[in-house]
């Protein structure tokens, strides 16, 4: 039974996960709402269950990789979860994860929630750096760690079932800001004769160099001293923002992705904090 796994959901991500367990010699049972998506995996050796309940019954460990939390509730509505280890790596919010944990525990299962930090082509490719945040039952995590680590590295972030989702969403949210900035930069450079791939190379180099400043912000947030090690103070940055906005206007580019962040920096400056870094923005956001 050590090598038996059930996987619910054969979308792009579920299918990628499934292949890694099959390749590693696991006895895999799969179920997908649209049955035809299971056919290629059946040909590769997976057992295909006719219903989610039948799939759950087949293995001690049940991994769910469905669209959203509602689809997990729907798929598992009449499955027998008593004694099962439910690992839900469907993306959701921290509160959804905690509620799903209570729901599964009330049905007699142990529960582990997960947030996948990868896109499907990174799954099963160790050098791609994919990993999954896990939180919830530590006993489940420790006992099933080997199986969980087959498709991507496994990182446990605590007993609060919502912790994995929070970590996942924090990183995705940071990525949104990054791609917002990247979109603005491409818009500025578009039509100027500089090939997009040259702009891309510059962006990757610059953003990689700048990302390390998250460590400086962390030191400031921990010490409460937002002047600690400041290399670019707010007074200077707010001046610089005016140049960014004027350039956008000159190039005929909307600055709508930049102005919300700049507005928060201006509020700090108006509050007399020009010698600090922009770390105070974190507090403005927390206070609403
Ligand atoms: P897909 O859209 O490719 O697949 C969605 C899956 O959910 C399908 O198996 C679909 O079944 C199933 N599903 C949807 N609604 C229901 C329902 N009501 N009941 C039962 N099954 C349902 O998504 P992915 O595979 O890409 O994503 C799966 C999860 O992985 C999501 O939570 C996503 O956020 C997460 N993830 C995905 C990443 C990616 O890059 N793809 C990256 C990181 C996380 P059917 O075939 O019948 O439609």
TrEMBL record:
SUPFAM superfamilies found in the cross-reference section: NAD(P)-binding Rossmann-fold domains
Family: Belongs to the HIBADH-related family.
Domain of life of the native organism: Bacteria
EC number, as in UniProt: 1.1.-.-
Phylogenetic placement of the source organism: Bacteria, Bacillati, Actinomycetota, Actinomycetes, Streptosporangiales
Keyword Oxidoreductase annotated: yes
Protein name, entry field: NAD(P)-dependent oxidoreductase
PANTHER family: CYTOKINE-LIKE NUCLEAR FACTOR N-PAC, OXIDOREDUCTASE GLYR1-RELATED
Family matches, as InterPro entries: 6PGD_dom2 (IPR013328), 6PGDH_NADP-bd (IPR006115), HIBADH-related (IPR015815), HIBADH-related_NP60_sf (IPR051265), NAD(P)-bd_dom_sf (IPR036291), RedAm-like_C (IPR048666)
Location of the 6-phosphogluconate dehydrogenase NADP-binding domain: 4-154
Top enzyme class: oxidoreductase
Chain ranges of the NADPH-dependent reductive aminase-like C-terminal domain: 160-287
Alphabetical keyword list: Oxidoreductase
Entry's Gene Ontology molecular function annotations: oxidoreductase activity
Organism this protein belongs to: Actinomadura gamaensis
Pfam families: NAD_binding_2, RedAm-like_C
């Amino acid at each position: 039974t050590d090598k038996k796994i059930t996987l619910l959901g054969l979308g792009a991500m579920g299918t990628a996960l499934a292949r890694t367990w099959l390749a590693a010699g696991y006895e895999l049972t799969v179920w997908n709402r649209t049955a035809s998506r299971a056919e290629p995996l059946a040909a590769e050796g997976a057992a295909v269950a006719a219903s989610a309940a039948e799939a759950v019954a087949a293995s001690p460990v049940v991994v769910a990789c469905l669209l959203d939390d509602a689809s997990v509730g729907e798929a598992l509505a009449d499955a027998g979860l008593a004694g099962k280890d439910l690992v839900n790596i469907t993306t959701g919010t921290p509160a959804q994860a905690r509620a799903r944990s209570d729901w599964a525990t009330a049905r007699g299962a142990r529960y582990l929630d997960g947030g996948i930090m990868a896109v499907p082509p990174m799954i099963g490719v160790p050098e791609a750096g994919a990993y999954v945040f896990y939180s919830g039952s530590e006993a489940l995590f420790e006992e099933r760690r080997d199986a969980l680590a087959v498709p991507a590295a496994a990182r446990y972030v605590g007993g609060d079932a919502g912790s994995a989702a929070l970590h996942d969403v924090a990183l995705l949210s940071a990525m949104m800001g990054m791609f917002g900035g990247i979109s603005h930069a491409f818009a500025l450079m578009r039509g100027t004769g500089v090939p997009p791939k040259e702009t891309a190379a510059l962006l990757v180099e610059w953003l990689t160099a700048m990302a390390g400043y998250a460590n400086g912000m962390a030191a400031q947030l921990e010490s409460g001293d937002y002047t600690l090690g400041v290399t670019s103070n707010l007074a200077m940055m707010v001046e610089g923002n005016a140049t960014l906005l004027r350039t956008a206007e000159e190039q005929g580019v909307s600055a709508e992705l930049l102005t919300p962040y700049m507005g928060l920096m201006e509020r700090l400056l108006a509050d007399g904090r020009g010698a600090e870094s922009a770390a105070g923005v974190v507090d403005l956001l927390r206070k609403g």
